Amino acid sequence: MVHIFLLALLMGIVFFANSHVETRDLVQEMGLQYFLNNPQQALMDELLLRFKPNLTDPLPLYILLLLGLPLVLPMLLRKPGYVVGLSVVVYLLAPWLQWNLAGTDGGVWFFNPMAWQLLFILGGAAAIHGQRPGAPQPRPLTRQPVFIAALTYLMVTGLIAVSWKWPAMHEAFMPQTLAEWLYPISKTNLSPARLLHFLALAYVTARLLPDNGWTQHWLARQSCRMGRYSLEVFCFGVLLAPLADMLNALGANALAMQVFSAMLGVGLMMLLGAWLDFNKRLNRSIVVSAA
Asked: Is residue 170 over pLDDT 90?
């Protein structure tokens, strides 16, 4: 019922923010007009994970994948190769056979769970593989083919992304064959270009970061803590977003106000992670004392 509670809080915050902003319609921007027009149907669609206001699209995906975790995890621990292989097959078939779940007004889920499950499965398989002792890599990074391929892919895709700012230049150097394969870069079905970019970025980052306890740095600890409570921090961030929009609008969208609202939001989410971590440790110490 987290998404129902989040919807109620989000509507209250959006209505409050919208009453203070005259230059924008935050209700429309957040996709809450559907609820105002059809409240009963919207509540039913919310229960069925079909009604998703803006910024909340990942939450139903998160819920659905967690519901499937008890079924997938035992198989992933025993036969990770088979699970990843099956996941890849489903990922490839989803856009081809147009597999997706129904949304509101005849639409579909923005994040297709049939496609995005692959990223979830790959993350689990990588975590399991990372717990196993691996042989040290004697060769330098410049002589590791996988690292060179991943870094090259990141550089090429980075140049393509930058060229979007100048359409004429993009059309001039972009080969037609590559453009036909690359576009459209679907986020709904997790386009292979997006998936490869994420995997390449994760691999290059993991290889470049020194294995000397950098995660004990204060900023890294805060990031890890927010990751441990990702659901709570995500929901809190959704609630903060319309308030940040309100501040930015009242401040004439000045750069200083945008930086201030962003830093304030990050600080509040860090405080939430710290409070949740403290509360968890406190409850654990109470249980140990009672035992």
From this structure: no
pLDDT 10s digits, 257-287: 999 999 999 999 999 999 999 888 887 777 6
Q: What is the C-alpha to C-alpha distance for residues 125 and 85, in angstroms, rounded to an integer? A: 11
191: helix, strand or coil: coil
Query: What is the rounded distance in angstroms from the CA atom of residue 228 to the CA atom of residue 248?
Result: 30
**Is residue 273 a contact partner of residue 233, using CB atoms and an 8 Å limit?**
yes
Q: Where are the alpha helices (DSSP H) in the chain?
A: 2-18, 26-29, 33-37, 39-47, 58-78, 80-97, 113-130, 145-163, 167-173, 176-182, 192-208, 218-228, 230-250, 255-290
Boundaries of every domain in the chain: 139-208
Output 136 or 17, whichever has higher pLDDT: 17
CA separation, residue 258 to residues 20, 142, 219, 243, 251 (Å) = 17, 40, 21, 12, 8
The DSSP output letter for 6 is H
Query: What's 267's DSSP letter?
Result: H
Average pLDDT over residues 117-145: 81
The residue count of the chain comes to 291
Alpha-carbon distances, residue 278 vs 30, 149, 273 (angstroms): 33, 43, 9
CA dist., res. 149 & res. 204, Å (int): 10
52 phi and psi angles, rounded to 5 deg: -135, 100
Distance CA 95, CA 239 (A): 32
Predicted model pTM: 0.82
Contact 62, 116 (CB under 8 A): no
